[in-house]
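Render this sequence as a predicted structure.
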Amino acid sequence: MSELMEQFLALSVSPPLIPSLPDDITVDIVAARVPLNHYPTLSHVSKSFRKLIASPTLYKRRSQLGITQHRVYAVLQSRKTRASSFYILHRKVDDCSNRLVVVRSITLKSSCGNYVPVGSKVYVFNDEDALSIDCTSHTSQSIPDIPQRMAYKVVNVVDEKKIYVIGDSVCHVVKEKGGMLRETWKKAVMVFDTQTQLWEPKLVKEDMFLGVLWSDSVVMDGKIYMKDYSKGNSFVYEPDERKWEFMDEVLNSKAWKGACVVDNVLYYHDLRALRAYDPKKSCWSVVNGLGDFLVAKTARSRWCHAVNYGKEKLALFFHKNHDGKEVIFCAVIALERRQGGEIWGQMESCDVVNEDGLFDMVKFVTVSL
């Protein structure tokens, strides 16, 4: 008996999903024909469908059929309580507008955390613990925490296999006269293997300076790019060669923050234009075609978060005063590289996704379901 059939049988503790059809046919229909934004409604049809929607079986079948969609998740922090909550960007069925909907089954213990998407999961490394969130079932489980305390850290995934945690770590503790302990800090790289769920031995970089507060970090072509908040320098770490480099003045010339990568090109919005950096050409350009509309929409916003929204597409989140109150907008932009290398953008939608202005934007990530 195949593994997939065993999973179907495990689901079949309740009556058939559709009495006139075998469950495997029903699963194929739901996987191939029903859009993800209809899944919440479908889960209310019966207990059996609710169990199916929350089961890895459905999403595994979608993957086997080559049908995957990108879903955006957000971490918002309450300005009142400083507590963080996990949200999903949900497309409403009635008017096709986007909304941020809180995922109540997920509890984030700490307001300070690093979030990194890997496939259909989001890995969280915060001050208290480490966990992985399964976005197919909206459940979480604990994973081994970072073996050693780290400060000023950034977290990124390379090739959807290994998570790199880069920051300052205690490497030596020396006992001085009088019994006082003195800690020696070094720049370190910790690697978490998402397949084995184990941490690899720590790598120490002796000649990198400490105390760097990173304003942002992204991955392009298997390399980790980091932006220094205080001095504006950009660094790159090559995992394969375990090598650090200063980036050229071109990348340093822009204060990129809240950036994302789509097709190995870095994008960020500086409240004047949507800008793109191509590491192969080592040059910045402005995304054409958006005109004054996006500038008007983001006017008086403090800053924007960009997130990959699938193939040749990104989503831009920003605060703005709307009808007398502060809200969070989401603009979905389709990208196209034309002959000559110019990048053009087309606004597909721009919606108010959160009407409660008492939340700060912490992080946005995209998973594949």
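Summary. The first helix runs from residue 3 to 11. The first strand starts at residue 70 and ends at 78.
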